[in-house]
Design goal:
The chain has 467 residues and is mainly α. The protein has helices at 2-36, 40-64, 67-77, 84-115, 124-138, 141-156, 161-183, 194-216, 235-241, 245-277, 281-297, 299-317, 321-354, 363-369, 371-393, 398-419, 425-452. The longest helix has 35 residues, at 2-36. The chain starts with a helix and ends in a 15-residue tail after the last helix.
Length: 467
């Protein structure tokens, strides 16, 4: 009975989260198609600006993800107690404040980079396009980071349906606005690269509104602020005075390492893309296709990762050590099974297509020629996502930071540069596979050791019993 209940709860959390990942991956593909409508020069400038924006926001986006385990642990610890609404309301205010502050800092960094693009040696036309995008996009970065904060907050409460609805609606709005503003359809004015940035900003604002409505049904935003503060019992005053110190310390202690993890992962992926580009346009195109297939293939793992973070943190917060252990085994086992099924399907599909393909299929043919290596990379990446999410739920993100810095940046940098121009695309993927194997082994060993040594205690904002 317990296993059936936990399995159902895991599916209810993981299902909407996985669909959200698929919707954003599909939106990324559609964005590439819309960018191609603007011409090669405009597309190149927009891609450069989007890459810069992603790099600037990587730390903040991943830091805000820590709100999910912090919220889940606090909900588990205060479940059934009278003060839980006030305590969780303080987390809502912290999420809003963190999103606004990190968004403002990221926007200022993007504006500073846009002012210095001339010194990077790019062509003048590309620089003008990239600068235009960065200036327009910086205005909406705070909205996007508040959106991320609200998303993590709801996931911590076990609500993945509200973020799913907000994500789908914002993606549809982004699609309609981008296409309409780029092509001049639907009675909209035809703009240049600023159309893509403006559409993203507006869709983020719509998503914030939908998440805000969902959050307001669960939290008393101003409860816990003394009445004698007068006007400070407003949203702005709540941001300044209304969150608990324990919650802020938890966000910094858990979210700081997560921010470094996200930045390290992005640097590693960028390094690989730069080195693959040396192999020629066909290999670079094949790698681009693989990254988008990877985003789709990891949807199930990302969904299970959300379930892992929320369920494990909630159980630890409630002091249910054995329950947390069972949930960890259930979620990791589910990922092993679902990942294995996906790998078998990929290898089978690759074999079938290769019997019918010729060289004219270019990048796709190159990928399917090494389908076994690609499938292995996908399997390990999925398992890494789930194991890392378990550690997030335990509040142990420093080990993730150490593994990301040493392996994603250090190991990849040394080996990829050492192989250099002599490598083929399959060699790079084999090195990626080795790196992931080492990283997964380190995380699993640490997780096993943490569960054996009973004198350890996992902390998420306040002292919690070990599991």
């Amino acid at each position: 009975m317990f296993a059936r209940y936990e399995l159902g709860r895991m599916i209810r959390l993981a299902g909407p989260a996985a669909v959200s990942c698929v919707s954003f991956a599909v939106m990324d593909i559609i964005d590439c198609i819309i960018l191609a409508m603007m011409g090669v020069d405009s597309m190149a400038g927009a891609v450069l600006a989007i890459s810069i924006t992603a790099l600037v926001m990587a730390f903040s986006v991943n830091m805000l993800r820590a709100l999910a385990p912090v919220t889940a642990a606090r909900a588990g610890a205060l479940q059934g107690r009278s003060e839980w609404k006030a305590s969780l309301g303080s987390l809502a205010r912290l999420a809003l404040a963190a999103g606004v502050v990190l968004g403002a800092v990221s926007a200022l960094v993007c504006l500073a980079i846009s002012a210095g693009l001339d010194d990077l040696g790019y062509q003048p036309g590309l620089v003008d396009t990239a600068r235009t995008y960065l200036i327009w996009r910086s205005a909406g970065i705070p909205f996007e980071l508040v959106f991320v904060a609200g998303w993590a907050l709801l996931e911590g409460l076990g609500d993945t349906r509200s973020p799913l609805k907000a994500g789908i609606v914002s993606n549809i709005c982004n699609l309609v606005l981008s296409f309409g503003l780029v092509s001049g359809c639907f009675g909209l004015p035809a703009l240049g690269v600023e159309a893509v940035a403006l559409a993203t900003n507006i869709s983020s604002l719509i998503g914030v509104g939908m998440l805000g409505k969902a959050i307001s049904k669960k939290f008393d935003f101003i409860q816990g602020i003394p009445k004698n503060f007068g006007l400070l019992r407003s949203w702005w005053g709540a941001m300044a005075l209304g969150f608990e110190k324990d919650a802020l310390r938890a966000l910094l202690r858990i979210g700081g390492p997560l921010g470094v993890v996200g930045l390290s992962n992005l640097i590693g992926v960028t390094l690989l893309a730069v080195l693959v580009a040396r192999l020629g346009p066909q290999a670079s195109a094949a790698h681009g296709v693989f990254l988008r297939l990877l985003a789709l293939g990891l949807a199930t793992a990302e969904g299970l990762g959300v379930a892992a973070t929320t369920l494990v943190a909630h159980a630890i917060g409630a002091g249910r050590k054995k329950t947390a252990n069972r949930k960890i085994h259930l979620i990791i086992g589910s990922q092993v099974l679902s990942g294995s099924v996906l790998v078998v399907l990929m290898i089978w599909l690759g074999g079938c297509l290769m019997t019918q393909m010729s060289q004219e299929f270019g990048p796709l043919g190159l990928l399917f020629e090494m389908s076994s290596v690609v499938a292995a990379v996908l399997w390990l990446e999925g398992l890494l996502v789930v194991v890392a999410s378990v550690l997030e739920g335990c509040g142990r993100t420093r080990v993730l930071m150490l593994a990301a810095v040493v392996l994603d940046v250090g190991f990849c940098g040394i080996l990829y540069v050492w192989v250099g121009l002599r490598a083929e695309l399959e060699t790079y993927y084999q090195l990626w596979l080795v790196k992931n194997g080492l990283k997964l082994g380190c995380l699993l060993v640490w997780l096993a050791m943490a569960s054996i040594h009973k004198d350890r205690s996992f902390r998420v904002g306040f002292r919690l019993p070990d599991w």
